């Protein structure tokens, strides 16, 4: 059944008129997320106030076969929250409370709409840390981060979001409210639904509460930067660092094109003659950090670094980190359309992968620069272009298709931390094969018999 | 269709006569695992040599609706590998090669039948560590550990098996061979099948290869032991340690009854006047470890420890750890039947839970002592009795039912690291509720339409 006026009345009865949007001007902002070139208008937007309202909306939608697309801040980069089949966008930002932070149990219980940064700051005030730190953390929500299993800069040493989710409250598309896991570090009673929902991109259930693990905040930290003549040399240093027995908390790279763009944008005093910049950092007890930073610096020198700079204090560390944080805005200003991807390869294939990306860019006459997480092989090839240039947009689509194929050929994947969404669904078959895609669909059906939850995405 | 002679012939054609067992004397060892009181004879035992043979066996079994129970070393403690409905036990111990250890990528690729200790030692020789260290690691296999998401002593600081599985090769009950994840620290292309299979207790697919993460071996370590007048006092120290910002690699406890049993058994010089023993350890860079061990020791003293001893060297550290390792054998010799459980509660409820266990034991006139992982609230209440005393066996079953109920009441779970198996399936509904149990069954059906894989366990 399509969306009807009666259906809208039912929605209003559930969430209240003030939490329902139906007017075209009100719907437009929810027709897109942070992914360029994807847009589709929903029929309604609802802002439920608790799990019971979410349950009532989903039950109604299942009865009437109306699509429901859960959404947090809408900072998704793979069109994971674009309502490609219309229907209802279910926005969880009213559920934005930190319900509890327990020092004794090292955990927080939060509603899904709280931003990751809010949670991080609240933990920090208690001497604790919420580890996941995706680049979007100032705006993105904990629920959205869990739905995409967000990564960030600390993946190699600390793991990603899934490692920090202890328990979830979730509403199934048929309306049942379930609680998975809990406040426990060890719990193997049943299939691991906590992890299955983490990274399921809002296609299996709607998260209404999360219990996440915190860790004691590290007492010290250190940061440094090294320039290399080439990305190959930088990757040699990465291998040497890891083989020396150090797992740095941060190990980020910028390719030649990124370094130049950042320097032109932010005038940080970066060496624009360098072929690559490596940013490294560690945290923990002060002596251990100092020793690790020293070992990393020496490994860079031994691998032919042009220059190595260690930050003396927090201020200079922040200045070094600025180069990485500026990468995306610095590149974005070079064109009015920015496509940011996150193909990932095994760490030793990183330089080779960036070489392939450069070849692909050149062949398609595109400007693609790459930065990313050298520690875990997670690359962010970033294409800047003019959306009016339809030829370039078409070439960019082709180029990214070739980039995903290359990543798979090198033993990698089409997405390390952003998700599949609508944008990368066409490439999923190449990554997983037909047997696994068929299995994903059967799992999807086990949760969502009417296929109402975020259709056109994972599991479709 | 029941198991027939023709079916046996087909099995022989697939794995070869020399890898098929059909005689009663040959089947008996596979009628039980390490769980007391559970036993059921299979119709056949097969030892496949590769994933293709596993696939052929499963396809055949699905066609003929014959149960297949995957098995590693058979050290399971919840009857997870007992063939309760007969059929074929599929033993994976021939698949016991370490295929690769990569220093550069910090990973190992192994077949499922390799023992965890073999992998650990191979990693150690390369200066690396495979972190999961379940108590069974000398005999249990990596495949079995993944199938149960095995825990161990390092859970709080390092997490459990699931945190170290990067990728799996698995055979679906319908015969398809799939590969989940890979060599990547970040990969969100698709639902997290790697984690869904981890802990699925051989009910969704048969694992035929695993890629696991390794970490650099810590350069130093330290160990200490503290005695307290009561378990409450010991738990107070645990809280103080964690609130001081230390996450110890090891934090184990023995209750009064365990301390006495261990001392009577092993004459280690333990203080038998103590109400509880706390064993603590940390690893990492030497200075940081020394500082942490010192802070832990001081926290114990501040919380009223009777005595704190720090190990000076590896030998004395091993001597301290012996107390924990001896707990199970020391208790087992007190009766000819030992039932070891692993109810788990949030860390602050640990002393309360042990108190409840003591009350339950007294009420049922049973000898139940408890040791376990204080850091993650994972208890191992251990009941020793005489199997000929049918009254006591019945009372023990009742007592463990009450223990599981108590754990759930305190916000805990029926199993922290051993699994559900056949032994705890009756309690799963209380832990998860009917909606979640129904969902597990639908997930099971998505993998195993003919319900042939390890029936009578998780998902049944």
From TrEMBL, chains A, B:
Keyword terms, alphabetized: FAD, Flavoprotein, Oxidoreductase
Keyword check for Oxidoreductase: yes
Cofactor: FAD
Family indicated by similarity: Belongs to the FAD-binding oxidoreductase/transferase type 4 family.
Any single Pfam family the record assigns to this protein: FAD_binding_4
Source taxon at top rank: Bacteria
Protein name per its UniProtKB record: Glycolate oxidase
Gene Ontology molecular function: any one: oxidoreductase activity
UniProt source species: Prauserella marina
Family annotation (InterPro entries): FAD-bd_oxidored_4_C (IPR004113), FAD-bd_PCMH (IPR016166), FAD-bd_PCMH-like_sf (IPR036318), FAD-bd_PCMH_sub2 (IPR016169), FAD-linked_Oxase-like_C (IPR016164), FAD-linked_OxidoTrans_Type4 (IPR051914), Oxid_FAD_bind_N (IPR006094), Vanillyl_alc_oxidase_C-sub2 (IPR016171)
